[in-house]
């Protein structure tokens, strides 16, 4: 199970506190995922804003087979608390060029996945000046139903696959925007 709760994170990222931690301090699940991106933080955050349009993971699963847009969509960068993001989330808070925090929407999404908050943070890479680390910190309350810990473990594994693809895709698009 531990392998599914963290992926590619540094000790500093592991010990950091994220907005999702503040929102759901008592939730039993805490998952961290991160990627290195060869682009400055504003370019990475710009791509992160595109989660308003699509999930950028495995589109055949998360986006009903429609490909997540590859071009820049300026309307995505016009963030406001309360906006819908990736269909099943609501934008809870954001700091431009730094982070955004999403919470699971009420209704069916929360019934299926449980209560969940995720903070996406972009920060300067400690190893490579001009580059960025894109970190996702998730806090997860057990979904309703039998065997909550087992369901959370299964959800962590599925999320790891989807989130790894999402972070890599957003990072690659930010790199393309900057480097051509």
SSE topology:
Blueprint (H helix, E strand, L loop, with lengths): L1 H4 E2 L3 H5 L3 H5 L5 E9 L3 H8 L10 H4 L21 E2 L3 E7 L3 E6 L3 H6 L2 E9 L7 E9 L7 H32 L1
Parallel strand pairs: 1-2
Antiparallel strand pairs: 2-7, 3-4, 4-5, 5-6, 6-7
Helix pairs in contact: 4-7
What do you see in this structure?
The chain is of the alpha+beta class and 180 residues long. The chain has one domain (2-118, 136-179): Alpha-D-Glucose-1,6-Bisphosphate, Chain A, domain 4. The protein is built from seven helices and seven strands; from the N terminus they run H-E-H-H-E-H-H-E-E-E-H-E-E-H. A hairpin with a 3-residue loop joins strand 4 and strand 5 (99-104). The radius of gyration is 15 Å and the shape is globular. The model has no long low-confidence stretch (mean pLDDT 90).
